């Protein structure tokens, strides 16, 4: 999610010289002793020949699905994860930026573009995705945002019964253990669930300034996951005891010792094996140590939870997808589904929108790259390292293109007391992929300055892209073509979002600190006057900033929808025994950071499987399973 926005904070606070101290301190003083849920047991060397259910991908949804399906004692469940386990560094919220381009990251890149990502090397945007147990919930900025009521009501109107807001809300609540006593009392939040949600225990003074500025513009301070979304809020995230609460920590560690759940790490799924005659899923083909190939049989169903990139890739490698593309790849067609890999949607905005103040309130390398900051976190679980990837505030605002008569904002703000320059050019520019001329021209002059940023994010883009295979080799990354800013309305809406961000800086609340915009023009845009529409469009096409919310590539919809891949119960159209449960099933991207909705999809999808296989036994058995699950949730370590 918004991890790059906070990378300035994380890298400013902990240079590479500080890493050994962090690793030793966390491991010795806190990590295993205060986190007795402990590590999962890797079953990759003792995978059975057959399982009732196989879940592909142990990420934000897959971890949830594996937990819930293994609640049924007589079902054997295998969870397959291509990556390894989390590390001590990934556990530290403030170090989110360091996880990119590491072994925990798939390190995807978009294809080269002529109309977006122009400020990046080779005109390609980096797309970090979690190659680790817990998936991208291990790499993201931990922000807990559910989206808008109208998102889910629209899903249902598209022909997906059971996916309205009123239907999905109970599944958000089911997962949640909200530690804010005021929010926990409302009907929109839950306590006692596996997933801990709370505010960071540490904020800069600018977080309150941000709320005051929003209020000046007419936006209320409210629970953006409650009755209304429009407004501002101190960010809540998936953290627990000052540490990241990934879905692996939340949903897998507490049930680590279930005898009917095997978790295979560093195991790569090359394809789903489907009987082409019966169109019946019979198993999955796996690769271990990069070469040994083996088929694991499935008795009931395979659940594909490999994400918006991995799920369509695996389906196409399995012969399920657009016939013409599979023919070009020389992959035998098992079942034609033209929508596989289509409908790719993502949230984007303007990167590096920077404002300068005169007070020492922001994250800078000199101020936070210190031993005392590290020790404060190691010993007390507090301090700057406990912040949500550096993001302190969220806002949902209306441009002139939004329908102001309903609560359906079209732009989201991520506020952070840092910017591209905050680490002195050590790390942020690399993980963004920013070209030297851009950094040296725009941000190097700001090194040592007090800077903050707002990322204006387009919530419902009309541009969409595709995922396509690069080759038949399952180890090759697919081609990612997001087609950013191909629809003119996306550009117009984002420009209006930028102008509202400029109003935030010009508010009385921020002006008392001398806030003003950074006006050095973007290289490549100097022919346009600063703060004009042509300039902002040029800047958007250069510093196209994604916070990595790919969705929609295995779209949920009825059979008459030619691009639909799964039905409303997440069953793949025309293929028995195969479901998809992850961000790829979203018919339209949600209005906000999608990690919480993906967890909801895992919760709801797992119940669909239980209902399908327990149908003949009646509702009483399902109720008993839920009671069993609730009893285990109540034992989650505090």
Task: Outline the structure in words.
There is one protein chain. This protein is α/β, with parallel strands linked by helices. Helix content is 29%, strand content 18%. The chain has one domain: FAD/NAD(P)-binding domain. The strands form eight sheets. Strands 1, 2, 11, 12, 13, 14 and 26 form a seven-stranded mixed sheet that branches. Helix 3 (62-69) packs parallel to helix 18. The chain starts with a helix and ends in a 5-residue tail after the last helix. The model is unreliable at 1-17, 618-622 and 628-638 (pLDDT under 50). FAD binds at residues 132, 269. Residues 130-153, 307-321 form the Glucose-methanol-choline oxidoreductase N-terminal domain. It comes from Cloeon dipterum. Belongs to the GMC oxidoreductase family.
């Amino acid at each position: 999610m918004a991890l790059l926005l906070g990378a300035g904070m994380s890298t400013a606070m902990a240079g590479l010289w500080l890493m050994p101290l962090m690793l030793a301190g966390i491991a010795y003083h806190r990590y295993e002793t205060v986190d007795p849920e402990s590590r999962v047991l890797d079953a990759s060397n003792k995978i059975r020949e057959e399982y009732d259910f196989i879940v592909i991908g142990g990420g934000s949804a897959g971890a949830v699905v594996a937990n819930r399906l293994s609640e049924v004692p007589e079902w054997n469940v295998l969870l397959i994860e291509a990556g390894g386990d989390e590390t001590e560094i990934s556990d530290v919220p403030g170090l989110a930026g360091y996880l990119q381009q590491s072994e925990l990251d798939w390190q995807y890149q978009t294809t080269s573009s002529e109309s977006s990502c122009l400020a990046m090397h080779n005109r390609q945007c980096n797309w970090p995705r979690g190659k680790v147990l817990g998936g991208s919930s291990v790499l993201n900025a931990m922000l807990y945002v559910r989206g808008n009521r109208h998102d889910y009501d629209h899903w249902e109107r598209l022909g997906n019964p059971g996916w309205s807001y009123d239907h999905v809300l109970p599944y958000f609540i089911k997962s949640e253990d909200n530690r804010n006593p005021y929010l926990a009392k409302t009907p929109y939040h839950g306590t006692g669930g596996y997933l801990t949600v709370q505010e960071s225990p540490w904020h800069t003074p600018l977080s309150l300034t941000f709320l005051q500025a929003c209020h000046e513009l007419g936006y209320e301070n409210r629970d953006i996951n409650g009755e209304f979304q429009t407004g501002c809020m101190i960010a809540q995230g998936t953290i627990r005891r000052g540490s990241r609460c990934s879905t692996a920590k939340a949903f897998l560690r507490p049930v680590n010792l279930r005898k009917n759940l095997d978790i295979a790490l560093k195991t790569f799924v090359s394809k789903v094996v489907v009987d082409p005659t019966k169109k019946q899923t019979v198993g999955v083909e796996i690769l271990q140590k990069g070469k040994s190939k083996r088929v694991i049989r499935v008795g009931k169903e395979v659940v594909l939870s490999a994400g918006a990139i991995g799920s369509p890739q695996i389906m196409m490698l399995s012969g399920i997808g657009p016939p013409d593309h599979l023919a070009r790849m020389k992959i035998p067609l098992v079942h034609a589904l033209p929508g596989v890999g289509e409908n790719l949607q993502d949230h984007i905005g303007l990167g590096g929108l920077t404002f300068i103040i005169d007070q020492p309130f922001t994250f800078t390398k000199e101020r936070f790259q210190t031993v005392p900051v590290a020790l404060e976190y190691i010993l007390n679980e507090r301090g700057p390292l406990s912040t949500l990837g550096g993001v302190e505030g969220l806002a949902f605002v209306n441009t002139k293109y939004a329908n102001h008569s309903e609560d359906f904002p079209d732009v989201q703000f991520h506020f952070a007391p840092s910017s591209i320059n905050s680490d002195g050019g050590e790390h942020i520019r690399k993980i963004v992929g920013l070209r030297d001329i851009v950094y040296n021209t725009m941000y190097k002059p700001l090194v040592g300055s007090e800077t903050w940023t707002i990322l204006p994010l387009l919530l419902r883009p009309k541009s969409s892209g595709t995922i396509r295979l690069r080759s038949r080799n399952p180890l090759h990354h697919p081609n990612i073509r997001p087609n950013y800013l191909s629809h003119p309305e996306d550009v117009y809406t984002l420009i209006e979002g930028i102008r509202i961000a400029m109003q935030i800086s010009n508010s009385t609340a921020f002006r008392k600190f001398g806030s003003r915009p950074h006006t050095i023009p973007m290289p490549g845009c100097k022919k346009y006057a600063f703060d004009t529409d042509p300039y902002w469009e040029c800047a958007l096409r250069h510093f196209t900033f994604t916070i990595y919310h790919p969705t929609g590539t295995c779209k949920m919809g009825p059979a008459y929808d030619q691009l639909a891949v799964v039905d409303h119960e997440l069953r793949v159209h025309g293929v028995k025994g195969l479901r998809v449960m992850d961000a790829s099933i979203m018919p339209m991207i949600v209005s906000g950071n999608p990690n919480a909705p993906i967890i909801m999809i895992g919760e709801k999808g797992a119940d669909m499987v239980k209902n399908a296989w327990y149908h003949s036994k009646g509702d009483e058995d399902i109720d008993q399973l839920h009671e069993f699950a609730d009893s285990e949730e109540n034992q989650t370590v505090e």
